[in-house]
Amino acid sequence: MQLDTETLQEVFNALDTEHKGHITVEQFTTALEQFYSSLIPNADENPTLNRKHSLNVKNIVNVLDPEKDGIISFEDFKSAFQDYFSSKDTEKPERKNMTLKLMGRSVSINPDDYVLNQSEGENDLRTEDSGFLETGGPEPSLVSPEFSSDIAMRNEGRRAWPILRRSGGGSFHSPHEGPGSPYSGSRSDLLMDDVDSNFESIRDQMRRMEERVASMSANQLSNQDSVSPGLREQNTRLNATIAILEERLKEAESRYERDLESEKTHMESLMARAKRAYEQEVEALRSRLHKVESDLTENSIALSKAKIELENSRVSQQKASESLNDAQDKISQLQEQLQSRSSSESVELQKVIKERDQALRTLKEVNKAADLRQSSISHSSLDAVSRVAELQQIINRLKTENRDLTIKLQDAQEEMLARSYEDVKVFLTKTDNAYGIEIDKMTKEEIVDLWTQEKFGNMQLRAYLDRILEKVVTHNPELLEHA
């Protein structure tokens, strides 16, 4: 049988009185308890049945609220009902016994004891050694024929009661979940074929059971002596089972609390570790930031100093360039003066050379005249002697003049070199410090250029002096001999 969404929506809306789109577990359990109370007016007189109803409520809540958040959404409500009605086998529930350790004994508990569907002659608790809690009901020989009919009616009522069925479609999420557990079940255990027909069937069954209970109460007075031992044994068995289940519940709760506490401790340790790592990383980043800021400040100061030094070097370079230009101008002037003096001295030297040549020619003429007059020596020896004396005086005078001119030339050259040396020395004295500072600040390429220029100037000066010496050697070698 299938339930459509509209029917389930109407039921859900009836439970959702505040129109929030969801219902709470408290609302659902209240409505379900009101339904059970309407079926059993005197629920306080039958605590066992009331306890079984509370177990059914817990199982239903576990199915409807699988997330354990106290909120039942329409999807969970819908899936719970549709899973039950879509199950294939709802007529033959799977039943398994649950084995427990009680007082050193293995006790087998049948789940039919907790769903009100135990058949006749079926033991509630069995042990492996047939000792403690072996039987589940009164012996047939101890039950009267009248009470046997009551037992049959009771078992029929149990079979008619809606049992908690177990199918492969799902299971309750209970702390005591397990094979054969009285809390085990599935969503298909919640309802019968139809909600309305199920409720009506339950009401009819409850009325029939009340009538049977009344008749059983009347028969119980007459058969109390034979029935009371079995009831006591059953009561003892049920109390032992309840104690076992309560103990298991306490153990599960304590285990859950321990797991929760350990998980909480683990998470707190993880949080503390993450917090420490975060703080260490923040501290490392902060120290790194301070270091970067200090480096940036130092680099800014160094950059400012470098800019100032660069500006100063540019100014110094400009001054050095100006000083160098002035020095080059002065050197050019000195070179011009040297050239002018050299030219004037060359002119004087040419004059001296011409006079020497003239004197030589005169000497040759005198010699020729002397040769011509050798024939006439006899005419006047006195005139010849006087003529030779005059020639000798002329020659001595020319040699003296040549010597004086050579000395004057040397003095002029020495004076020119001394003046040039003094001028250069004064200029270098004035610009010595500036040139030293400029040379310290100059680059290698600039120093090489200046050295090349100075070398070129020295080569030109040497070439000029060589030309002067060549001219002296060519035109007046006697000057070198006298020197």
Automatic annotation (TrEMBL):
Q: Which residues form the FIP-RBD domain?
A: 421-483
GO CC, alphabetical: cleavage furrow; endocytic vesicle; midbody; recycling endosome membrane
Provide this UniProt record's keywords sorted from A to Z: Coiled coil, Endosome, Membrane, Transport
> Coiled-coil intervals in this record?
192-415
Q: SMART domains attached here?
A: EFh (SM00054)
Would the keyword Transport be found if you checked this record's keyword annotation?
yes
The GO terms describing molecular function are: calcium ion binding
Q: Which SUPFAM superfamilies match?
A: EF-hand (SSF47473), Eferin C-derminal domain-like (SSF144270)
Pfam families, per database record: EF-hand_7, Rab11-FIP3, RBD-FIP
Q: What is its main location?
A: other
Q: Where is this region: Disordered?
A: 164-188
Q: How does it sit in the membrane?
A: Peripheral membrane protein
**Localisation:** Cleavage furrow; Midbody; Recycling endosome membrane
Protein name stated in the entry:
Rab11 family-interacting protein 4A
What organism does this protein naturally occur in? Schistocephalus solidus (Tapeworm)
